[in-house]
Amino acid sequence: MFACLVIAVLAITMATNAVIDPSWPFPEPIQLKSENGRLDIQLTAATYRYRGKDFDFNTRAFYYNGEGSLPGPTLRVKAGDTIRLTIINAIDHSDKGGDSSDYSSLSYSDYSYSFDDFFPKDTESSIMDIFRPVVSPPLLPPRNPAHPWKEHSQQQSQIQDSAESDMQEHSRQQRQIQDSTEADTVNFYTHGLRIDPKDDSIMIGIKPNQSYTYTIKIPTNHAPGTSWYSSHRPGSAAYHASSGLVGAIIVDPLDPTDIPESLSNIPHYPLVFQEFNFHHMINCGCSRRLTFLKNSIPCFHEELGDTMDLDLNVDESHSDHIFYTINGFQAQIIPMGTDQGRVLRFVNAGSSTTLELEINGCDMFLIARDGIYRSQPSLVDVVVLFPGSRADIIVSCLSPGSFNLESVQNASRNTMFLNRVNTRLTQTLVHFHVSPFFSAPSPLPMQLPGAPSYLTDFGEEHTSLPLTIGDDSAVDFILECHNSRDRKSVV
Predict the structure, then answer these.
(1) What residues contact residue 88 under an 8 Å CB cut-off, 6+ apart?
(2) Strand locations in 206-307, DSSP E?
(3) Distance between alpha carbon 91 and the CA centroid of its chain, in Å?
(4) Burial of 36 (0-12, 13-18, 19+ CB in 10 A)
(5) What is the dihedral sign for C-alpha 396, 402, 405, 408?
(6) Distance in angstroms (rounded) separating the CA atoms of residues 486 and 472
(7) Is the distance from CB of 463 to CB of 366 less than 8 angstroms?
(8) Fewer beta carbons within 10 Å, N or C terminal of the chain?
(9) Of the candidates 386, 390, 383, 347, which has an alpha carbon nearest to the alpha carbon of residue 366?
(10) Per-residue pLDDT reduced to its tens digit, 152-169
């Protein structure tokens, strides 16, 4: 009887392994790691031909050593490191890009620009005034006869009308800049790093045949975690994010022992989510509001006056012409065993799509949000990722078989979206192929890296914080936090 059981188990193992080789290479962008406290690299922005399963088109991508990819390379650094990054703009619309293009030897030192070139002293204030939002007037209470400040209603009405006028003028100036922004102007902007804003400015614009060198210093007390980067020039930021100029950043602690061994021993997988929206393929015909709400690549292409030929081909069975990728592929396959989980570092680099991550048949533990570790892993039913957000999760499967990590819309979660989210994805993102192992499952790490010293713990149910409005007005507000670490929940 025991022999029959062994044979049956071996047969299951062979059948499971037949589905996929455990050594299956996980497709991900190249990781560029710092050494001896420095990461000195050169990335080139150039035209690129993306060829996917259901669509292909011309776009822009970051190249490293002549190899372009969507998304771009993953930058891996440590707290206390210095990143010296040179961005070269070699965008040429006559070049279709792809593997045949070699940009590794390009140098544009004669056209290099410094930060001061983008902010000359005589124009810096006027440029920044255009992008400085109107803060004080909009934060005044709305006109309401029942408001305790009603005796000042006439004065508030005048201030609010003035604020609305200022906002309209601000929007008009934004549109003028947006119209004049070239789709070929790029830069490098990080999302999640706690660094000097001067080293991370959206105002820097690198035009074709120009280059710019960034020097970014990571604080020694920077939290370990997952961040990301994109080309984020005003006017073309959403276009570039929607068409591929993005990548992941992973910050490791200065002291490796800050990561518990029970966590560092688990295989980690960076997963960069991207959306490619080709709605309005034939004729954009949509207003500016629709364009920048829906983030359709053809609409961006039309309104920004992009002269690059998209040369778009899509599988017509996808009627909405919207596609989603993980690390450049429309679905990922991750092999694992019942003895050990997998850490997924999710980056939602999509510009309008929200993910609602669920998995049936396996457990999902949230360990980090937006580059900050939680105090301990939390068993959750779903992890919601809005555009630009990140989450690190551990997936643990105790039974062999095939399981899917999916983004699933659920009507019970509608209230959390406030009618502001454009797209909620329903699609399988990751396939897990789980093989049986005789060894017991590895214990879940019960301790995670501590919170950085520069963050305040809002773990209490009620926290009172002061908020200053303008120069001489202050109010108190209550921040209410609901701790859900001990139960399965929406996180």
Answers:
(1) 42, 43, 44, 45, 103, 106, 107, 108, 211
(2) 211-217, 225-230, 246-252, 268-277
(3) 23
(4) exposed
(5) negative
(6) 42
(7) no
(8) N
(9) 383
(10) 444 445 555 555 555 555
| Cis bond upstream, residue 436 (ω within 30) | no
Beta bridge partners of 271: 346
- 186 and 240 Cβ atoms separated by less than 8 Å: yes
Residue type (1 letter), 266: I
* Whether 208 contacts 91, CB under 8 Å: yes
| pLDDT tens digits for range 377-428 | 999 999 999 999 999 999 999 899 999 999 888 878 877 665 555 567 788 8
Side chain identity at residue 430, one-letter code: V
Element (H, E) at 3: helix 2-19
Q: How many CB atoms lie within 10 A of CB 412?
A: 7
What mean pLDDT, rounded, does the chain reach? Answer: 75
| Contact predicate 123/210, CB 8 Å | no
Stronger pLDDT, 214 or 179, i.e. the higher one: 214
What pLDDT, on the 0 to 100 scale, is given for residue 114?
Answer: 42
Provide the total of helices (H) and of strands (E) in the chain, helices listed first: 8, 26
Compute CA distances 141 → 2, 150, 165, whole Å: 76, 10, 17
The residues, ordered by sequence, that sit 6+ positions from 363 with a Cβ below 8 Å of its Cβ are 379, 395, 396, 397, 398
Report d(CA 328, CA 310) in Å as an integer: 18
